[in-house]
Amino acid sequence: MEINYKSGLTGFQTEDGVRYVVAAQELSDKVITTLATEANAIFFPAIDGVSQDEFCEIISCTSPKGVRISQSYKDLTCLQDKVLLEEIILPRDVKSFDDFSNLKNLKIFEGQISEIKSNIECCNSLKNLTLHKLKTKSKSFESINLPGSLLSLKVNLGNIVSTNGIKKVSDLKHLSFEYMSKLEDLSELPELKELRDLELYSCKKALNNDVFKALSSLETLKLNNCGKIENLEFVKYLSSLRKFTFVNTVVENDDLSPLLDCKNLEYAGFMDKRSYNLTFDLIHDKLRMKT
After folding, report:
1. pLDDT along the chain (291 residues), means of 10
2. Is residue 290 a part of any domain in this protein?
3. What is the pTM of this model?
4. Are the C-beta atoms of residues 125 and 150 closer than 8 Å to each other?
5. Of 36, 60, 75, which marks where a domain is finished?
6. 163 and 189 in contact (C-beta within 8 Å)?
């Protein structure tokens, strides 16, 4: 929802009720005033945004609940001591700070972290974590410390080959991997007993029917743009599955009939292919008849 503040600045309100003000160029004083009276979070845009110095000044003079940044600031260490921060969203190509020890209230973080230097595990309230360009020495999750409080983890780009070590985040409900071209081993995912949603996008080496078959708690499965999958037999074993998409992922044996044997499936998203034995429309006609 868009907001017009008394200071003349604009902003928006999130679904959680956080009121953001847009930090416009050369209007630092108005931003600070607005944060003291009406808003409780700041958005730093990439276009017509404030300078590095103005960014640091605004952060040092305020106590925001949320910070979203689209501009490529080189120094973000001023955020480290803002104990009231609950949300930090950073651009994909911007390196984060390393010391999270004071951010006890942080619930949402999106950005890059250093495997060796970062102590993000200190954030015991962190629920949603998005990591860009994640690189670890082990090429897995064994050598990186993540908060046990996490409910959602998204990894976008990186050198991860195996999900080994991810079971230590035992309460994880939502897991997403995007553009992970080296990801091959998902064998530890069945250890995540609370996992409800799994998304793989452009992870062409990661498709493993034996692993998928064992994810009995899944309600949503997305295997989009993932090359080829041998067959869909595994979906018959996913009794909780309600939504399954495999857009731009080819089923090699052309048999889509297992979708009709998935007990609670409500929606299947895919591209029609001449060689498939069932069409999108026919699948959904039959699924509607089941309910």
Report:
1. 88 88 84 89 87 90 93 90 94 88 95 85 94 92 90 96 94 97 95 97 94 96 96 95 97 96 94 95 89 63
2. yes
3. 0.92
4. no
5. 75
6. yes
